[in-house]
């Protein structure tokens, strides 16, 4: 049976694997098809496409766009996007600017709780592409303020915590529209993490085409619940590990895979089959 992992980050956002390493890992774990979905960034896709072709791994060009709803982050995956689309690139440029400003804002808030991080430290960790909270969490941990990287989220920068800053200007339906305009299929990422099911019909009206039913943060019960919703609302079903590389050892590639038949459904929807 062919299998796929449709949610993988590279070092161009907050993963630790380069695009080449992602493809090599897919091969090693015998995953037939992978989707690279970096946060608000498409810079890995060109490189990864060339490498995937050489290695005989099927690659779906993807993205994970950040939106905001009621002060909470909502992540929208876009599959089969045209990564050269001007509307998409303009939105990404704006999001990159917001991401950088937000690091400075969170660093200011951290000072108030006696956590002193230099912006350069964070930008050195993030390197090319998108900077984000996971990079800031590494910096907090590296400076000895927490015992684990994850603890930085729990104490300071997790959703709704005292040093968390959310300034993304885009609503979920706006980013859904951006994905559609770039020829992609918009899918709601890890709905179980947000737990605001009441908004799904509003997103579907805005053009949402699928739900990420299988995810490393979903319990079997949660996956069952979202499978039901997807069926009821006639939405596509996707899934993936949300692998971030060595930063999150317990969710390495292939820890969540889906049957290839779901990829075929996605392909059909994207007009690629
Ligand atoms: P950002 O896009 O900058 O808001 O950061 C979101 C990313 O931070 C997620 O994709 C995860 O990589 C990481 N993250 C968010 N919350 C947590 C958490 N509680 N524990 C570990 N990582 C987290
Ligand atoms: Zn991430
Ligand atoms: Fe996400
Ligand atoms: Fe992700």
Distance between the termini: 19 Å
Which structural class do you get from the secondary structure elements? alpha/beta
Count of discrete alpha- or pi-helical segments spanning 4 or more residues:
11
Question: What do we call the CATH topology of one domain?
Answer: TIM Barrel
Write the layout of secondary structure elements.
Layout: E1 3-8, H1 19-28, E2 33-39, H2 45-55, E3 58-69, E4 72-79, H3 86-112, H4 119-126, H5 133-142, H6 149-157, H7 172-181, E5 185-188, H8 191-194, H9 200-205, E6 210-215, H10 220-232, E7 236-240, E8 258-259, H11 260-269
Parallel strand pairs: 1-2, 2-3, 5-6, 6-7
Antiparallel strand pairs: 1-8, 3-4, 4-5
Bound molecules: adenosine monophosphate, zinc ion and fe (iii) ion (2 copies).
One fe (iii) ion is lined by residues 7, 9, 64, 242.
Offer a few descriptive terms:
eight-stranded mixed β-sheet; 11 helices; alpha/beta; binds zinc ion; binds adenosine monophosphate; binds fe (iii) ion
Structural notes for this entry:
- The protein has 273 residues and is of the alpha/beta class.
- It has a domain at 3-79 and 173-270: Alpha-Beta Barrel (TIM Barrel).
- The chain has eleven helices and eight strands.
- The chain has helices at 19-28, 45-55, 86-112, 119-126, 133-142, 149-157, 172-181, 191-194, 200-205, 220-232, 260-269, and strands at residues 3-8, 33-39, 58-69, 72-79, 185-188, 210-215, 236-240, 258-259.
- An eight-stranded mixed beta sheet has the order 7-6-5-4-3-2-1-8.
- Helix 1 (19-28) links the parallel strand 1 (3-8) and strand 2.
- Helix 5 packs across helix 6 (149-157).
- The protein is globular.
- The model has no long low-confidence stretch (mean pLDDT 96).
- Bound molecules: adenosine monophosphate (AMP), zinc ion and fe (iii) ion (2 copies).
């Amino acid at each position: 049976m062919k299998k796929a992992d449709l949610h993988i980050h590279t070092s161009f956002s907050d993963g630790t694997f380069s695009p080449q390493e992602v493809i090599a890992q897919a091969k090693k774990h015998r995953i037939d098809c992978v989707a690279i979905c970096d946060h608000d960034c498409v810079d890995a896709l060109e490189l990864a496409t060339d490498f995937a072709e050489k290695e005989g791994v099927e690659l779906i060009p993807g993205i994970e766009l950040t939106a905001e709803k009621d002060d909470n982050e909502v992540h929208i995956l876009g599959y089969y996007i045209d990564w050269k689309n001007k509307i998409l690139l303009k939105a990404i440029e704006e999001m990159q600017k917001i991401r950088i400003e937000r690091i400075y804002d969170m660093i200011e808030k951290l000072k108030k709780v006696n956590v002193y991080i230099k912006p350069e430290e964070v930008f050195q960790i993030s390197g090319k592409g998108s900077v984000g909270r996971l990079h800031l969490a590494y910096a907090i941990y590296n400076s000895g303020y927490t015992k684990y990287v994850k603890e930085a989220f729990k104490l300071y920068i997790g959703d709704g915590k005292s040093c968390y800053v959310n300034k993304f200007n885009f609503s979920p339906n706006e980013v859904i529209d951006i994905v559609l305009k770039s020829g992609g299929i918009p899918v709601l990422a890890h709905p179980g993490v947000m737990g605001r099911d009441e908004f799904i019909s509003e997103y579907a009206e805005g053009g949402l085409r699928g739900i990420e039913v299988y995810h490393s943060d979903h319990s079997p019960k949660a996956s069952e619940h979202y499978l039901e919703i997807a069926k009821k609302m006639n939405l596509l079903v996707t899934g993936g590990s949300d692998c971030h590389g060595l930063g999150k050892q317990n969710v390495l590639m292939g820890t969540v895979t889906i049957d290839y038949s779901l990829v075929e459904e996605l392909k059909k929807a994207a007009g690629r089959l």
